Amino acid sequence: MKREKQKIVYVIGHRNPDTDSICSAIGYAHFKNMTDKGHLYVPMRAGKMNEESTFILKKFGINFPDELESLSSTVNDMELKRPISIGAKDSIQALAEMMKRENVRAVPVVDDNGKVVGIVGLRDIAQHYMDSVNFFDLSQSPIDINLLTKTLECRVLCSNSSINPLSGRVFIATMQKGTLLNKIQRGDIIITGDQHDLQIELIHAGCSTIITTNGLEPSVDVINLAKDKGTLVLVSPYNTFATMHLMTMSAPVSSIMCKKIPTVGLYTPISALRKRILESEYRSEIVVDSDNNLIGFITRTDLLNPIRKKVILVDHNEISQAVEGIDEAEILEIIDHHRVGDISTVAPIYVYNDPVGSTCTVVANIMFLHQVRIPPEIAGMLLSGILSDTLILTLTTTTDRDRLAADRLAEIAGISIMEYGKELLGESINTKGKTSAELISADFKEFLIGGKRLGISQMMVLDCEEINLREMELLEELERIRVNGAYDLTALLITNPISSRQERILLQGETWIVEKAFNVKIQNNTCILPTIMSRKKDFIPAVGQVLSMAR
What is the C-alpha to C-alpha distance for residues 150 and 154, in angstroms, rounded to an integer? Predict the structure, then answer.
């Protein structure tokens, strides 16, 4: 699963996606998945689908692409290693051994259900070791017998279930017998060697536990007396110094862990992750899910290599039209049919930019070239993109390659171009019940030309009278967009492909640009052009020429 995630490549069109953008992304992802088994190509969209695109995908039974809000890398784009963790009830000694074995400086702490309850690092172990210099009284930090025996790897010769945890004072039997016995109180813990007589007297004195070192077992008399008095007797295989040290390391991890947990989720941006790790005392972050289950553990070394989403752009090659975060992504390919924009890459990439009427034509021709089988539903979808972007092969952008591709796709899909074209047109031209904002935003694109920022929308209508009645509100919306978006010019190109062969334009802002580009007079923020305009082939190039001369 982890490996597949790392091989994902997103195929995505421009913001405010039109039919050509949606269909070419799906089509090209299909082609790449057929020809490259080393990656998983996933079609995505950079905004809400319009009604036409929705109709097409439903008609041909194709799944809707998910929306991708940003290409900024997140934790989910990292190759998360299987995280190591320590249980809150495990001993500090077990923690130290794990950290040495795994060569790590910090470890997440989990409870019995695998949920993160803390974090612990070398600094915590070091602090605990420094604090243990005065280790002689367990009343403040009792030791669990099970942890102690596991840590010491000791044998239990006499047990007492009521003595758990150990909580008395700790003595090492190095002083004179009389001196030691004068200090002993009931419940104390004594570490001894093979001192038979002393062990007898210590048990009589009421000590709770005797721990012998170097694997030396007490005599039968001592063991029998201990059983009679309820004294716990343990045999440590280590010498006295090591036994004392390991006792201090028998405390549970929960006693030294930090409960202020540095956690992130799978969709935390890498930029935020870097900042958090740099500010973290542990120089790391724990990755958890919504239920606080441990997913991964990230340290500074995991961020040494660049972490970027891989993406193929279709139907655009300009930053202003690309999904947010494009500057952080690794662009692998660009498949387009527009003018060359301002997107640049660090490494050389594959670019196929063909000045045809539709990106779906480009995608279809790539499939024909590679002799990739095109399923009928994919053929119908690609045909839809061509017919939509060329207005049923009538716009000035339409080329012979568009017509040839459309014919071949129609044959594969078993569709009549003219009959289906009229059906598609009827679905796409629907202004009833839509607000001015919805009408303009449906096919709105941003351009930066000659230092001017332009926002150009295009729409088709069948009822020109309705547009006449809504002219003022459309102009008001264009002005609102111009002001809020800091555009120099906003324009709406309105086309009636059935009853009119001319273009009506509503404008706000520096309207002189359009007057000079098309030699027209603009009155009341509107004008009529005698021919249907292609935004990318007719309108934008003419405007661009004017602006280049004005500089």
Answer: 7
Query: What is 2-73+309-428's CATH number?
Result: 3.90.1640.10
Given a cut of 70, whether residue 6 has pLDDT beyond it is no
For residue 3, pLDDT beyond 50? no
pLDDT of residue 411: 97
CATH superfamily of the 142-250 domain: HprK N-terminal domain-like (3.40.1390.20)
Angle between helices 417-428 and 376-389 (to 10 degrees): 60
Domain with CATH 3.40.1390.20 in the chain: 142-250
Comparing 35 with 532, which gets the higher pLDDT?
A: 35
- In the chain, the percentage of residues whose pLDDT exceeds 90 is 49
E strands, 193-306, are 209-212, 232-235, 263-264, 284-288, 294-299
Least-confidence region, from 73-82, 183-192, 447-456, 533-542: 533-542
Instruction: Cite the residue boundaries of each domain of the chain with CATH code 3.90.1640.10.
Output: 2-73+309-428
pLDDT in tens, 293-308: 999 999 888 888 888 8
Residues 6+ apart with CB under 8 A from 348: none
Q: Please, what is the end-to-end C-alpha distance for the chain in angstroms?
A: 54
Sheet holding 503-509, edge to edge: 444-449, 452-460, 489-495, 503-509, 526-529
pLDDT digits over 227-259, tens only? 988 999 999 999 988 888 888 888 888 888 999
Fold of the domain built from segment(s) 436-550: Diaminopimelate Epimerase; Chain A, domain 1 (3.10.310)
Among 147, 148, 167, smallest CA distance to 208 is for: 167
What is the spatial distance between Cα 60 and Cα 378, in angstroms, rounded to a whole number? 8
Q: Which residues pair with 311 in a beta bridge?
A: 10, 331
What does DSSP assign to residue 357? S
Higher pLDDT: 161 or 273? It is 273
pLDDT at 126: 84
Three-state SS string over 286-317 comes to EEECCCCEEEEEEEHHHHCCCCCCEEEEECCC
- 86-128+254-303 topology per CATH: CBS-domain (3.10.580)
Tokens of 129: 């070791």
Q: Name the phi and psi angles at 20, rounded to 5.
A: -60, -40
Backbone torsions φ then ψ of 70, nearest 5 degrees: -155, 150
The three-state secondary structure class of 39 is coil
Whether the per-residue pLDDT at 43 is higher than 80: the answer is yes
Q: Tokens for 190? A: 């004594």
Residue 259 burial (10 A CB sphere; 0-12, 13-18, 19+) = exposed
Over residues 391-398, the mean pLDDT reads 85
For the chain, give every residue range classified as CATH 3.10.580.10.
86-128+254-303
